[in-house]
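step: validate -> pass
step: tokenize input -> pass
step: predict -> running
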Amino acid sequence: MSLIIENYYKRVNTFIRFILVGLINTCIGLSLILVLLNVLGLSYWISTFIGNSIGATCSYILNKNFTFNSKVSNQKGISLFILVILGSYFISYSIGYILFDKSKLLTNFEYVKETSLILAAVLYTILNYLGQRYIAFK
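step: predict -> pass
step: emit ->
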């Protein structure tokens, strides 16, 4: 029974650490995306790619060492991490872009692109956690 409780707390602790690291990554990445998109006027794809690339770099370092305490080699870890990040990115931000593209045709809502970015960021975070936990830092 003690081992079951210990494993449960370990998983909860890992999830809490991931959320904390995710908050840091999200603040960095999403802030950068919004600046690139709204201040510098860069395209949706360039803004989200650059912002998420910077956030992903922070994520790899913090999650490997702080969240998962992974002993996986950097060669293997980085390769798997990049696959997880790219897969999460293209799935979530493609869905976000579709929402953005379709929504602007249906409504005059002022914050359509920001709302679609936030929804895409939430989906990205979920897919990223699952991929990092079960693939990159297994």
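step: describe -> The first helix runs from residue 2 to 39.
step: cleanup -> pass
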